[in-house]
Amino acid sequence: MLDGRVAIVTGAGRGLGRAYARALSAAGGAVVVNDLDADVAAETVEAITAAGGSAVAHVGAVGSSEFAEALVERAVAEFGRLDVMITNAGALRDRTLRNTTDEDFDLVVTSHLRGTFTCGRAAAARFREQGDGGRLILVGSPAGQRASFGQTAYSASKGAIVAMTRTWALELAKIGVTVNAVVPTALTRMVATMPRVGDLVAKVDAGEPIPEGARRQGLGSPADVAPLIVYLASKESARVTGQAIAAGGDRIALWTHPTEVATHLRPGGWSPDAVSELFADAYANQLQDFTATPLDLEAIGSI
Length: 303
Fold this sequence. Notes:
- This protein is of the alpha/beta class.
- It has a single domain, classed as Rossmann fold, CATH 3.40.50.720.
- 43% of the residues lie in helices and 14% in strands.
- The chain contains 11 helices and 8 strands.
- An 8-stranded mixed β-sheet has the order 3-2-1-4-5-6-7-8, sandwiched between helices.
- Strand 7 (244-248) and strand 8 form a beta hairpin.
- Helix 1 packs across helix 9 (226-233), helix 3 (65-79) packs parallel to helix 4 and helix 4 (102-130) runs parallel beside helix 6 (152-172).
- The model has no long low-confidence stretch (mean pLDDT 93).
């Protein structure tokens, strides 16, 4: 499906990023494997080349324009072109609002949001120069779609990435570039602290099967998300753009775009008292749920 296509995957040393890189290679693509950790980047490259694929490592932290441009230049130098940019890299800090320091916020936002921005911009410039389209696959998170306690910076970054997806899809359509956000759920180290989920992560690490109830809720291995990545990287996905697509376990789902759910007009405008009456009456049962969607732990089954 990807014969001759060249992809960059940031944060590809472990977990989801590694699964993406290996799947892209298995489908015939060549891959630039980026990670901050040189050892794990080398391990991913070794796994790909041992299976007969083509990959090189490019070590460093995403965020700066210079690094993003160097990533693109490395792809072109090694493989002659660039077709796909997957912005997966990012740091995480579990902090409630009162405990989030400036340094915590800057680290998370720089790696996730600025890293996505700079890498996406550098890739789009290369796609424009090549003149035959391209694929931007930005990585969101359920934390950017719904509440995620203790994730101020991460939620802000991931929500912004999905918003950026829609804008870029609009701007880049004229040059044949599709832009989609993947919203993955997988049993990785990132979710191991959740109730009962840590035991499922251990199952994945041990190569054991995941209960059907967990898979139906979108909890599977990183490899379960990878087929969507391969499809979005392919020429076959040319008509799919501007979407936020959830993937995990046995599920693939489309997220809606934000839209108004209720509208009231008042000739002449609103007074504070009229607004108070509106929320006490017409809007009383239309306020949107702001909480996270909880896991059905009973449905996950025995572990």
